[in-house]
Amino acid sequence: MELDACYGSKPSRKRKSPEENENVTSFSMDDLNQDLLERVLSWLPTSTYFRLSSVCKRWKSVADSASFKLACSQIPSRDPWFLMVDHHLNHSIIFDSAEKSWIELNYPPLLQQNTSCDYMPVAASGGLVCFRNVSGNFIVCNPVTGSCREIPPLDPAPENESIHAIVMNNTCSNHQQSYKIVLVFGELPKLSFKVYESSTNRWEEDVSLSRKVDEESMEIESNDDDAVYFLSKAGNVVATNMQRSPSKQYSSVITCKDGEEIAYFLSSSGIIVACNLTRGSFSEYPRLLPAFSEYSIDVVECRGEILVVVLSEFLESASLRVWRFDQEKGSWHQIAAMPPAISHEFYGKKVDINCVGAGDQIFICLNSAELFSYILCDLDTNEWVDLPKCSMNGEAVEFMSAFSFEPRIEASV
C-alpha cells in the first residue's frame, strides 16, 4: 500500500490500471490486534467516546478497558471543551472547540443526587471540574466519564472569612497523577490559604500570606474603600464593594513557573492580587484603568501566564483588549484587541464579560440586558470568532460564564 500521499508528497495524477488496483492490499480495523486498535481509537476526538459502545461489542470492550485509558493518557493534548455555567440546568452544556459544536451531557450521578444543593462549577484543571454548593461542600468530577468524588468538608471551615479564590491544579509525582484545590480567604491585607490534596484526601493546615513589597514596581497603596465602578449582571453601574454574581464570585487562576505556584484573583476594587503559594506571600498589581472608570474586567491563564481581559468605553466607542503585565517594567502591555468594528456593537449596552483561557485561546461570555454573545479569541492570530448560539427547544440559551478543561476519559478523581 502506497503512503507517499499521506506524508505530504504530491499525489500522482496518473489513473491506475485495474491490474494495479488488484495489488492494493485491503485493510480493515478488524485486522488490528487489541493493543493497536486501542492506540488508533485513542487519537479520535473525545466526542467519539460516547459512540464507541454502539459500534460493536469489540469497540464497547475497548471503551471500558483500563488499557484504552492508558493509551489515551499518551496523547499529548486535547482541544479544550468549555463547560457553560447555568445553575438552572440539571445537565451540562459544553462547547467543543475541536468540533466547533455544542454538546449536551447528563450530570454525573452524584450531582444528580444533589440537585437541590445548587452545586456550581468553581474551578477546573486537566480533565476535572470542581463544583461547590452554597454550604461550602465540594465535588470533583470528570464530565466525560461522570466519575465523581466528594471532598471532605473543611474542618474547621473559614467561617466569617471571605473566599477570594478557588483554584485547582494537577500534579504528577512518581508517575502518579493527583490534583489539589486551593482556597484563598481573609480580608486584605490579612490573607491565608488552604490546600486540599487528592493524594491524601485531606485538607492541610491554613497558611498565612504576608504582603510582599517590591520597591521598583509592585509597591502600591491598596485602598479597598475607593469606589471603583463595575457593571452588574442587570446592566446597572454599581460600586464594587459588593458580592459578585455566583459565576464571577471567584474570578481566579493559578500558574506554575520556575517551581512556584501563584494564584491570582480580583479584589473587590478591581485590583489583581498575586498570591505566591510557594513563598507564602502576596502582592498587588497596579490598576489597568483609572478609578471611577466604567469597565468590566476578568483574569485568565493562557500558556502558563496571567492575562487580563478588559471591556471599556471611551470616546463613544467600546474596546475589548487583552493585557499582560511586564514584571521587569512594572507596567501593563496590550497583546491583543478586538477589531473596533466588532467591539463597537457593545457600546452603551453596559456589557459584562466573563472569560476563561485555554492554551492560545480565550473564551469570552458577554452579557447585558440587551444582548448575549460568545467570542473565541485566538491570541496567536488575533482572530476573534463570534460563536453560534446554543439552542434548546428552539430557543437560544444564555450563559454567564464558562470553565475550560481537557476532555480526558483517563482523568481520575
From TrEMBL:
InterPro entries according to UniProt: F-box-like_dom_sf (IPR036047), F-box_dom (IPR001810), Gal_Oxase/kelch_b-propeller (IPR011043), Kelch-typ_b-propeller (IPR015915), KIB1-4_b-propeller (IPR005174), SCF_F-box_component (IPR050796)
Superkingdom, taxonomy of origin: Eukaryota
Gene3D superfamilies the record matches: 1.20.1280.50, Kelch-type beta propeller (2.120.10.80)
Domain F-box: 26-71
Disordered: annotated segments: 1-24
Name used for this protein in its record: F-box domain-containing protein
Organism this protein belongs to: Acer negundo
Higher taxonomy: Eukaryota, Viridiplantae, Streptophyta, Embryophyta, Tracheophyta
